[in-house]
């Protein structure tokens, strides 16, 4: 298998390994096609294009991109459920989406062509993790409206691998099939990977006896410290996969074994920009909000969609076979950024501090305490790995480390192991807002 000899063959060499200049020409052609499609659909994005003076795809170049109009989540909500659809209803073959922030769903109609693009980019993502036709992919992302399960499923089938469609939850059954079917790839949220790893350890299974070689973990924020925990618990290479339903689902970008810790963006289908708070482009290496343009999608194509996700962009690894631009792990979400007493804090920074301490388990909750509006406070509930830890010393150490990293003080509470609620399905909830009444977790005060 390719992971052993360090060679990670490309699934689509013409696309993933294209000469960047040739790819730019393809992107420019596709961008013009997209603009024509949007104008023909005559919806919100057509109106905005016309207001910006664009009459046809032929009017735009890649260099013009920063001047073209954008769309955002608010537009999707205002046109709920399918006001942004750009094809006749009969061309839609499925719907996916997410429950989204504030409980408002975002729905995305896919055509057969869109599903085909999705299968392609997901096959590449799995291939980059070393999967091949001989692989067995254990898919423990949720199946349903959420794009995780079905996205991996499409990609694994396109690659010709064997997919085990487990969906989330059912820990005992997951473990049984991991042991019996000996998959080489695991796909699930990073928090579920830790949960599975802990459950395996509790059953006395040594990670070296597991068949798993790599995993694609995403759909929620996770840090380098969580990566080490997962790799240790499961004995595999833990890779990050990123995506959002509005753009396609998982597969927008994915780390490969040779991408040096960053995620290859499938930029022949999804053009990426990073912009500052005013919408101006930021240089490579500077954190910015990711703005995506779906170059090839037809059901609900989006021109310059503000994702709300913050990351850094970079070119390809010099000399590597994959010539795609890369993005860092997500640094946070624009709207998750907490502003506490004038200091900007991303929850991932807090997590990095917590998980760097090997006394702390990966189950924690960050609480933005705004009960006293004039004196907002950050509270952090953590659990120690062992009951024998001196909780007062641990709380003081974490408090100091957080103050050093964030520049503000936090109230740290060390709770008994098992106090922080676990998620078996869906995304982990690691941030809560507390404005009145009972604390989100007993013992936080
Ligand atoms: O979470 C798609 C997905 C499924 C990605 C499986 C990876 C694996 P949504 O439910 O629409 O789609 O949520 C998208 O989740 O805007 C990010 O804020 C967050 N997110 C997704 N992947 C990552 C990741 C799927 N690797 C939203 N790291 C995005 C951090 C992520 N956050």
From TrEMBL:
InterPro entries: AMP-bd_C_sf, AMP-dep_Lig_C, AMP-dep_synth/lig_dom, ANL_N_sf, PA_CoA_ligase. Keywords: Ligase, Nucleotide-binding. Residues 342-431 form the AMP-dependent ligase C-terminal domain. The keyword Nucleotide-binding applies. It catalyses: 2-phenylacetate + ATP + CoA = phenylacetyl-CoA + AMP + diphosphate. Residues 83-292 form the AMP-dependent synthetase/ligase domain. Pathway: Aromatic compound metabolism; phenylacetate degradation. The keyword Ligase applies. Its EC number is 6.2.1.30. GO terms for molecular function: nucleotide binding; phenylacetate-CoA ligase activity. Gene3D superfamilies: 3.30.300.30, N-terminal domain of ligase-like. One of its GO terms (biological process) is phenylacetate catabolic process. Catalyzes the activation of phenylacetic acid (PA) to phenylacetyl-CoA (PA-CoA). Monomer. Belongs to the phenylacetyl-CoA ligase family. PANTHER family: BLR5969 PROTEIN. This is Phenylacetate-coenzyme A ligase. It comes from Gandjariella thermophila. The lineage of its organism: Bacteria, Bacillati, Actinomycetota, Actinomycetes, Pseudonocardiales.
């Amino acid at each position: 298998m390719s992971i052993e000899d360090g060679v990670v063959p490309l699934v689509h060499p013409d696309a993933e390994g294209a000469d960047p200049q040739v790819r730019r020409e393809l992107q420019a052609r596709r961008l013009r096609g997209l603009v024509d499609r949007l104008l023909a659909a005559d919806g919100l994005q057509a109106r905005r294009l016309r207001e910006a003076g664009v009459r046809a795809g032929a009017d735009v170049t890649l260099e013009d991109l920063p001047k073209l109009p954008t769309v955002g989540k608010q537009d999707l909500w205002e046109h709920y459920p399918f006001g942004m659809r750009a094809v006749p209803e009969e061309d839609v073959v499925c719907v996916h989406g997410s429950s989204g922030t504030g409980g408002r769903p975002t729905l995305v109609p896919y055509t057969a062509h869109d599903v085909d693009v999705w299968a392609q980019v997901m096959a590449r993502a799995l291939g980059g993790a070393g999967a091949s036709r001989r692989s067995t992919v254990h898919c423990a992302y949720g199946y349903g409206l959420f794009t995780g399960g079905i996205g991996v499923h499409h990609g694994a089938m396109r690659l010709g691998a064997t997919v085990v469609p487990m969906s989330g939850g059912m820990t005992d059954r997951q473990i049984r099939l991991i042991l019996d079917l000996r998959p080489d790839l695991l796909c699930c949220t990073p928090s579920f990977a830790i949960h599975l790893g802990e459950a395996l350890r509790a059953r006395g299974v040594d990670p070296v006896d597991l068949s798993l070689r790599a995993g694609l973990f995403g759909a929620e924020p996770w840090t380098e410290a969580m990566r080490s925990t997962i790799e240790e618990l499961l004995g595999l290479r833990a890779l990050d996969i990123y995506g959002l339903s509005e753009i396609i689902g998982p597969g927008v970008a994915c780390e490969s074994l040779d991408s040096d810790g960053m995620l290859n963006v499938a930029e022949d289908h999804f053009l990426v920009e990073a912009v500052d708070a005013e919408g101006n482009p930021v240089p490579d290496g500077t954190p910015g909000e990711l703005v995506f343009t779906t170059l090839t999608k037809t059901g609900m194509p989006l021109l310059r969609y503000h994702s709300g996700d913050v990351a850094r962009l970079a070119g390809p690894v010099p000399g590597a076979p994959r010539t795609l631009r890369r993005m860092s792990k997500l640094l946070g979400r624009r709207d998750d950024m907490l502003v506490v007493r004038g200091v900007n804090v991303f929850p991932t920074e807090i997590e990095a501090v917590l998980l760097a301490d090997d006394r702390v388990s990966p189950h924690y909750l960050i609480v933005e305490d705004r009960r006293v509006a004039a004196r907002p406070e950050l509270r952090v509930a953590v659990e120690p790995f062992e009951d024998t830890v001196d909780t007062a010393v641990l709380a003081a150490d974490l408090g100091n480390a957080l103050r050093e990293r964030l520049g503000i003080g936090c109230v740290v509470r060390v709770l008994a192991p098992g106090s922080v609620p676990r998620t078996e399905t869906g995304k982990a909830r690691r941030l809560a807002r507390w404005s009145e009444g009972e604390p989100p977790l007993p013992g936080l005060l």
